[in-house]
């Protein structure tokens, strides 16, 4: 009778250890997944900022080229 009790307790302890290990690994995986999602969102935001900066620079270049062309035309006419 005590042998069955010892075996039962051992199985319960073994099952708890397995569950704890699985639970810890699952929690680590969930944490890594969340960190990856946050990093990905940050990278998207950074890419959007860079695209915006590039767009502003391109517009500034176009305005400057237009002004230079106007000045060149003015000098050619004079």
What does this molecule look like?
This protein has 1 helix and no strands. The protein has 78 residues and is mainly α.
Secondary structure elements and pairings:
Blueprint: H1 2-77
Q: Which terms summarize this structure?
A:
78 residues; 1 helix; 97% helix
Outline of this structure?
The chain is built from one helix and no strands.
Number of helices: 1
Strand content: under 5%
Largest sheet: none
H/E topology pattern: H
- Report the span from N to C terminus: 115 Å
Shape: rod-shaped
Low-confidence stretches: none
The average pLDDT value, as a whole number, equals 94
Helical proportion, percent range: over 70%
* Assembly form of the protein: single chain
Number of strands: 0
